[in-house]
Prior knowledge:
Layout: H1 17-28, H2 34-45, H3 55-63, H4 67-74, H5 78-91, E1 102-104, H6 107-115, E2 120-124, E3 142-145, E4 149-151, E5 158-161, E6 165-167, E7 174-175, E8 182-183, E9 197-199, E10 214-216, E11 230-232, E12 247-248, E13 255-256, E14 263-264, E15 271-272, E16 278-279, E17 287-288
Parallel strand pairs: 1-2, 2-3, 3-5, 4-6, 5-7, 6-8, 8-9, 9-10, 10-11, 11-12, 12-14, 13-15, 14-16, 15-17
Helix pairs in contact: 1-2, 3-5, 4-5
Amino acid sequence: MEDPPANTHPEIPEMSDEDIQQVTLILAAVDQTDETREVLSTLQKREGPATEMSVDMWRRLIAALPLEDQARVAGVNNFLRDLVTRMALETQTGGPGQEFVRTIYTQSELDASLAENQPLIFTPGEGSDLSIPRASASGQPVILHGPHPLTKVTGGSVQAKGGATITTVEGGRVDVEGDAKVITAAGGGVFLFDQASVETVTGSGHVLAAGNAKIKKVEGGTANATDNVTITSVTGGDVVAQNQATVTDVSGGIVDAYGDATVTCSAGGTVNVYDNTVTVHNNRGTVNYLW
């Protein structure tokens, strides 16, 4: 490996013996390059271990590692985490629409990332067991990629992509995508997509949903949904639904339903149903069965 560029005041990170041991174990498991071999040799010999490695040398090492191993190195300490993150942002060339997705393996790294007042975009590493005790005061979104559960986000605004399961948010707006499921949110929002399912939203919530939607409770106006719909309770106006719809208790105006619809107890004006079975109490005008 070439010597790093000359630097009259080289920045030398402090590394504990435990940090060095962790980096050594990570490097020992990767496919070796000239950079990783030389650094591994230096660390194993303990020849002034990391104190002889400037930031430039650490940068070259990290650049030589696969993304997953960069993520493991980032979990060693704050210096390496910040360096890996900085380098990823510097080298991002996919244009403004592409997001850098970090892999996080340890709870301590996740906690440190959540403490920063900026959006966090990450996927949990294989075998990791992470929870997100996020302070609502930070007000920044947490974005999760990958088929992994997200638990205990104690504040608003969470997004998830690909196989996400979200449990407890205690704040407004939760976006999810494929294979979505949300249990408890305690604030307005929640938009799901396919294989969608929601239980409890509360707080003037609206829910959008999509294929195979099942929605239970919303505690506020509007719940949209689509095919194979089942909605139970909304306690506010609107509700559109669609085929194989079943809607129970709405407590507000306007319910449309459609194929094989069953609507029970709307408590507001306008109910359109396509295929049979309607019970409507205290309706103030317009009930069409339309079958």
